Amino acid sequence: MAGPSNDALRCWICGSCRSRLHQKGTLDGKLTPNHFLITNSDYGKTADIYRCADCGFLQASLMKDIIAYYQDMVDEEYEKTRQERLIQERSNLQVLHKYKSSGRLLDVGAGNGILVEEAQKLGYACVGIEPSRWLCQQAVQRGLPVLQGSLPGANLQGLFDVVTMVDVIEHVSDPVGLLKEVRSLMASDGVGMVVTPDIESLAARALGRRWWHRRVAHIGYFSKRTLSLALQKAGLRPLHLRRPRWYFNGDYLYKRMSRYVPLLANHRLPETMAQRVVALNLLDSWLVIFGREEE
Questions:
Q1: DSSP letters along 9-75, please?
Q2: How far is Cα 206 from Cα 200, in angstroms, rounded to an integer?
Q3: Cβ partners under 8 Å of residue 228, min gap 6
Q4: Which of 41, 107, 141, 277 has the most CB atoms in a 10 Å sphere around its CB?
């Protein structure tokens, strides 16, 4: 049986047709919205992953029409971890604030409005867009301006001084196209922020396919090089690069650890430890502040 065509395997970053199977997928059964939960912990379960022979980008080439899964996704566990994630986005925004401290802010893939909520506290005039109807409802119930939709196609008015995409770009099959759309929405002196896992990090290399960021919903795997190349192709330039921190409560983190040490699942943390907020920097993601290239 013939495999996918060269066009189907075209690299989403550099456009090369020289992609080859890098890792056979482990999907069993039909895709459902649960595969795309933000809190999904089926680490190592992915579709077939292809590697570009020219730029090295890794992508799930055949996972393109997946927006409907996000639209129908309901993630109650994500809402339960809101307080820890507010701290996380506050940390990210403190970096961004040094480059643009006011103005209109667009959050792409806004989820239940966590970043929007924190950005409003800093004085930004915010709007978020999010494909999940349920997550949008959670945001709206809190009075947060999050619209149901995705880029391209969202009905947005005017230009933005700041555009943020936290853990978004690894979920899309046209990352350069998304970045070009972001550029078109940015003011000439605007700045953006993208956060995404790093496939060349020590954790990713040490754990291989068991790395916690290898999951069905992650269909593109960036390195520092391929992320920089994607920005360049979209007419954007990096201004700042760093490893972001993450914040979890002890119970959430303990459950994730049990995926690697099954014996932990037979025990429970004491309540005082379960509710304690833990700050982690596993050095396996990139946070990039970027601006527009001059035309």
A1: T--TTT--S-EEEEE-----S---GGGG-TT---TT--S-EEEETTT--EE-TT----HHHHHT---
A2: 10
A3: 238
A4: 107
- Give the residue extent of every domain in the chain: 19-292
Encoding tokens for residue 50?
A: 């292809």
Q: What is the pLDDT along the chain (295 residues), one digit of tens a residue?
A: 456 777 788 999 999 999 999 999 998 888 999 999 999 999 999 999 999 999 999 999 999 889 999 999 999 999 999 999 999 999 999 999 999 999 999 999 999 999 999 999 999 999 999 999 999 999 999 999 999 999 887 789 899 999 999 999 999 999 999 999 999 999 999 999 999 999 999 999 999 999 999 999 999 999 999 999 999 999 999 999 999 999 988 888 878 888 787 777 777 877 777 788 888 899 999 999 999 997 6
Give the phi and the psi of residue 179 in degrees, each rounded to 5: -65, -35
Contact between 125 and 103 (Cβ < 8 Å):
yes
Residue with the two structure tokens 């990210």: 92
Grouping H, G, I as helix, E, B as strand and the rest as coil, residue 270 is: coil
Q: Which residue has the tokens 């919903």?
A: 217
Distance CA 102, CA 39 (A): 31
Amino acid at 52: C
What are φ and ψ of residue 88, in 5° steps?
-60, -50
Residue with tokens 């506050």: 90
**Closest CA relative to residue 148, chosen from 128, 170, 122, 168:** 128
